[in-house]
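Problem 12. The chain below contains 218 residues. Write out its predicted structure in token notation.
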Amino acid sequence: MNNHENLIAITKKFVQQHLENAEGGHDWFHIERVYKTAVYIASKEQADLLVVRLGALLHDIADAKFHNDDELLGGIVARQFLERQELPLAIINHVVAIIENVSFKGGNETESFSSTELKIIQDADRLDAIGAIGIARAFNYGGFKNRKLYDPEISPNLNMDKETYRKSTAPTLNHFYEKLLLLKDKMHTQTAKSIAAERHAFMEEYLKQFYKEWDAAY
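Solution.
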């Protein structure tokens, strides 16, 4: 157990340093929230807690959308780090597979890998994309990409493949319909489903208020 705690401490420091200048919605604080949520969900499931902890900490170590859409870089960086920690190959391979399969990618992709630990981390990551934090992250990223808040003339695209999803320049509000509002029904664990229901309802209320203010409906 002590060895694991030392490993986790080293991993946290590595991730903090690596993401020091990251965009605000994908920085260390995002990682920390996902980590805490994943550990909480894992406490309700039969799962390898070490894999969950490492996978959650490393899941966004090199997010493809910030690295020229390179979907392999995150796994490469994580593997190199984990190999330096002299972990068993099975654990390294599992964590890397989680990193390579955790992202949303438009929601229409068929996953090539599945495990309880991946499902837990996906749930934790997706929970951080909805609710109050999810709204803040969406608009922060939209600002980072200089996107419009909303344009009534641009409709959401609900049938995007991975490439179209990545290249989308649509207004931030479209992202609610293209991803955020879909996540409640994509949760794997009962724990995440319960948390997601409350956050989903909050987003629905937010959108009602947004449209009311947008239309200056007094």
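Discussion. The radius of gyration is 18 Å. Students who got a different answer should revisit the alignment rule from Section 12.3.
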